[in-house]
Amino acid sequence: MKKVEAIIQPFKLEEVKEALKNIGIDGMTVTEVRGHGRQKGHKEIYRGQEYMVDLLPKVKIELVIADPRLNEVVHTLTSAARTGKIGDGKIFVYDVADAVRIRNDDRGESAL
Amino acid sequence: MTIVENPPSNSAAFVKAETDRLQREFESSGDAATFHSGRSSLIDLAVQHRYKEHLEPAFASGLALLAVGGYGRQELFPHSDVDLLLLVAATPEGSRKEAVARFLQSLWDAGFRLSQSVHNVAECCEMHGGNIELNASLLDQRFLIGDQRLQQDLSTRFPKFLHSQRTSLARQLCKLAHERHAKFHDTIYHLEPNLKEAPGGLRDLHLLGWLNHLFDATASGWQRELSESRAFVAALRTFLHLRSGRDNNLVSFDVQEEAPAQSYLRCNSPAGFMREYFRNARAIHRAAVRAMESVEEKGNSLLAGFRDWRSRLSNADFTVSRDRILFKSPHHLEADPNLPLRLGEFIARHKVSLHAEAERRIQQHLPAIRDHLEHPRSIWPLVRAMLNQPNAAAGLRALHDSGILGALFPEWDSIYCYVIRDFHHRYTVDEHTLIAIESLEELARTKDPSHRRFAGLLSEIEDLSILRLALLFHDVSKGEESERHCLESATMADQAAARISIPPHERQMLRSLIERHLDLSSAMTSRDLEDPATARWLADRVGTVEVLKNLTLLTYADIGAVHPSALSPWRLDQLWRVYVVSHQELTRELVTDKIAEGSASKGPAEVQAFLKGFPTRYLRIHTEEEIRAHFDLEKARQQYGVALEIRKQEAVYHLTVLAKDRHYLFASVAGALAGFGMNIVKAEAFANQQGTILDTFAFTDPKRTLELNPTELDRLRQTIERVLLGRIDVKALLKNRPKPSPPTRSSRIQGRINFDTEASDAATLVEVVAEDRPGLLYDLASAFSEAGCSIEVVLVDTEAHKAMDVFYVTAHGRKLTADLQARLRGELQQVVVQ
After folding, report:
1. Residue B1: predicted pLDDT
2. Residues of A in contact with B568 (CB under 8 A)
3. Which 27-66 residues of chain A touch chain B by CB within 8 A?
4. Is A9 an interface residue toward B (CB < 8 Å)?
5. Predicted ipTM?
6. Residue ranges of the domains in chain B?
7. B652-656: long-range pairs with CB below 8 Å, 24+
8. Is the pTM of this model over 0.90?
9. Domain B11-172 belongs to what architecture?
10. Is B565 an interface residue toward A (CB < 8 Å)?
11. Which residues of chain A have a CB within 8 Å of the CB of B754?
12. What percent of chain B has a predicted confidence (pLDDT) above 70?
């Protein structure tokens, strides 16, 4: 099993959720986060005063999937979240040792 | 009911059979009290039987069993804990200890969930600061079996202990209740309420019982008043326990769906059931709050003194007694139907609560109040006065609770206690709305830096009545379960606004705010804020900076009232970005988006020619009627060289000037107004393609010169005309004006000047934020003119002591050079720091 963690632009969330749903992925955890990578933030001027906006609002999506679905899921995420501009985000993939469904103690992929 | 006296040996089966029978009886009758007493009696027998079996052989004396807590009250719900006190003469040791263990185990084995404690009489008669629940549980003690002398000892000493400690004990019980209420944000209106712990729940009934026990008269009469509510709560909790097979007290959405099928809950729909729930919870909560206030005042001379001092707030209509309002002449409710609205304003001003007697009087006259308010009336000044008070939400809440708000705005009836099935929301729609209005009041007091920027916007809005009214109506169509709730809420608000005679321009603002109340939150999550198209979309939707500020605050309040942590730093940042992006676009487009021929209106060609070249903002901020009036002025200008009009709207004067563009023109008018001691609060200057200047100024008359000397208005008009025609030197007018006293250091505003050459292709944007003072606008405009700059567009806004001015300027038809900017900055800096 793999855990896929995607940091994306907030306005792409609905599109990404819809794309994942279309390939049969319904379960995910979504968190509102702030941060920056190469995008680094920007200066904002309001009423003559400069503000440095260094941590930009993003959305983090986490999902755990069976190994064979990894490429398909990553491809779906990149296609749906891409605008081609700096700040589109990143995807991280981790190995998952086990999964347990708390309700009935299902284990492994059957718990997903 | 009949209980078999000698339980058979397989007691668990016996208990189950009897419980099943009690359950069947409850399901057919809905009589929870019979179920509870039956279950208590069943357990009494089981406890007494096992006492004889396990404890009597080991304890000839020195042990008594007492039912305490809910068991003591004989209020045992199907899955409540069985609270049992083992009253001992001495701590059991050896074989006695083993006997106690066997006794308790046998009860567990019989299926009872025991919550036992072992104490001697002395321990029962002392305060348990860290476990005040123990003291409270003993208030409901009931002797079951055992050493009667021990029990008599407790019966003698416990009342004495209570008498000496009752004030302290009552205060601690109230403190616990306040903490419990705070966990539920002090409101009963939760979408999925906790029947036991939430305000208005079973714990509040317990509290009333305990306080009544401690002070006989504390809540006299509450038992009779609340008997119906008590029966409802008891039946509902019994149903919850039986339905879930455990001690579950959450009135979940699923429970709300199933409740109408239970005939004893007497409702025919989930919405009807929840209204019944809230009606009962409110009665219980009010009684509990009043009892707590009564206790907290006992022996607290400072609090009582403060409440007595507040009685000075009394006026011709109302008496304030112990922080509660009474009508001076309740019969006036019949003769003076606007009295309830003045009541709302009084509460909104002073934040005092209604006395029960005043509530009763209102209920008595509610039909007459409804009859009066349902017809169109010019009562907007009264409603506005309430909405502009610092505690407007308190006033609205009091009117809501007493039914007056529903009489004033019957549109509100559809969201009364209305539950929406939305997992993000925590409160009913009416409560969400009132919390939203409260959140703006909290914002005004906030010290949190991430919220302060929004507090800045709030301070820039002089009249909050339309914003608060928009919040009051923003979700009002949710009760209709409409797909287009923004539009329909706006329509319902507009109907109400027409009924109470809100002027057209304010109705327009109200409608705009409600129609667009989801635009900014939608942009936060579904639009790329870096994309210029988003900024253009937002500016187009919002229209003006004034609407943007109001809409931003409405969005802030709306999100914050969804649930306590909804306004996360993430959302605050996103909302602020949306505001800044929109603000920048609205400022930029002043010079970039001009009215083209044929795009302005359907009016005649000569009107279209007049409008050509004005910023598109002009069309957004002026009604067709105003545009026609401007065009009439333009015709006068063509005849006389200049044309102007001054009209008064409430406390503000509005000056419109039309003239051919020339150097110093804007500065001259600003100077003429300052020369008469007028305070300019807003100003705009636009030019059309033909070089005609249309300047509008909104100004106040702080010394009431125009009001007290009617001829001065004509003199002002003539002076401005002569200034425009170059026949008077403005400097001479200003020479003898007294200098205003400077603001205190703490309230002084840091002046800022910013040049932006990117905002427009043709002009340089200069933004000035400064401490406002008479003549400031004249000095700023003069500085531009003296530096050889032409002012193309001006947008001036003033709130409290802060002036926020936007100028688009050119020099010789081009943007300002770097050298000129540096020179101008120096000049402006001198003006700003004066």
Report:
1. 47
2. 32
3. 32-34, 44-49, 53, 57
4. yes
5. 0.80
6. 11-172, 184-299, 444-589, 605-736+748-832
7. B652/B681, B652/B698, B652/B699, B652/B700, B653/B678, B653/B698, B653/B699, B653/B700, B653/B701, B653/B706, B654/B696, B654/B697, B654/B698, B655/B695, B655/B696, B655/B697, B655/B698, B655/B699, B655/B720, B656/B629, B656/B630, B656/B694, B656/B695, B656/B696
8. no
9. 2-Layer Sandwich (3.30)
10. no
11. 45, 47-49
12. 93
Tokens of B22: 């009690």
In order of B158, B229, B262, B363, B677, the CA distances from B357 in angstroms are 37, 20, 36, 10, 51
Among B527, B528, B754, the residue with its CB nearest the CB of A48 is B754
Interface touch A11/B529, C-beta < 8 Å? yes
Look at residue B699 and tell me whether its pLDDT is greater than 70: yes
Residue B9 pLDDT class (50, 70, 90 cuts): very low
In chain A, which residue's Cα lies nearest the Cα of B567?
Answer: A32
pLDDT at B40: 92
B612 near B689, Cβ under 8 Å?
Answer: yes
CA distances from B73 to B34, B139, B142, B261, B431 (A): 13, 9, 8, 29, 34
Which residues in chain B have their CB less than 8 angstroms from residue A53's CB?
573, 577
Q: Which of A11, A30, A42 to mutate to test the interface with B (most CBs of B within 10 A)?
A: A11
State the count of interchain CB pairs (< 8 A) between A and B: 49
Contacts of B570 in chain A (CB under 8 A): 32-34, 57
Domains and CATH numbers, chain A: 9-34+62-91 (3.30.70.120)
Residue B309 has pLDDT above 80, yes or no: no
Closest CA to B249 of B190, B179, B187, B182: B190
Residues of A in contact with B756 (CB under 8 A): 45
With beta carbons less than 8 A apart as the criterion, state whether B521 and B555 touch: yes
CA distance, residue A15 to nearest chain B CA (Å):
9
Given a contact cutoff of 8 angstroms between Cβ atoms, the answer to whether B539 and B586 are in contact is yes
> Strand pairing partners for B353?
B324
What's the gap in Å between the CA of B257 and the closest CA on chain A?
24
Q: What is the C-alpha separation between B282 and B404, in angstroms, rounded?
A: 16
